[in-house]
Design goal:
With 100 residues, this protein is α+β, with helices and mostly antiparallel strands. It has one domain (7-96). It is built from three helices and seven strands, in the order βββββαβααβ. A hairpin with a 5-residue loop joins strand 3 and strand 4 (31-35). The chain is globular.
Length: 100
């Protein structure tokens, strides 16, 4: 179970720099997502936080602790603030790697 209001960080290692995504469980069964390819949005229309978690993984995002363990992310990496993350998404800081 994912605790309410806990931020769960993921990265997509096919982007340079790795593209962060933050999933936060909300009251009830919903979730809010910041970052990633689509930017900030919340679950709706019957979608649960668990649906959002599964979809995040299916889209190729890796939990940060796993990404660090497999060498896809520097061990010293720390997530940006939500404000920095969403600003970087809008500025298109994260670029798909050429060899992917």
């Amino acid at each position: 179970m994912i605790s309410k209001a806990k931020n769960i960080w993921f990265v997509h290692s096919q982007y340079e720099p790795p593209m962060p995504l933050c999933l936060q469980r909300r009251e009830g069964l919903g979730a809010h997502i910041d970052g990633g390819k689509t930017g900030p949005h919340s679950t709706g229309h019957g979608e649960t936080y668990w649906d959002a978690f599964r979809e995040t993984v299916q889209l190729g995002y890796i939990p940060v602790d796993v990404a660090k363990e497999i060498g896809a992310l520097d061990m010293n990496w720390n997530p940006p603030t939500i404000e920095e993350l969403n600003k970087n998404i809008k500025k298109r800081v994260y670029q798909l790697k050429a060899n992917v």
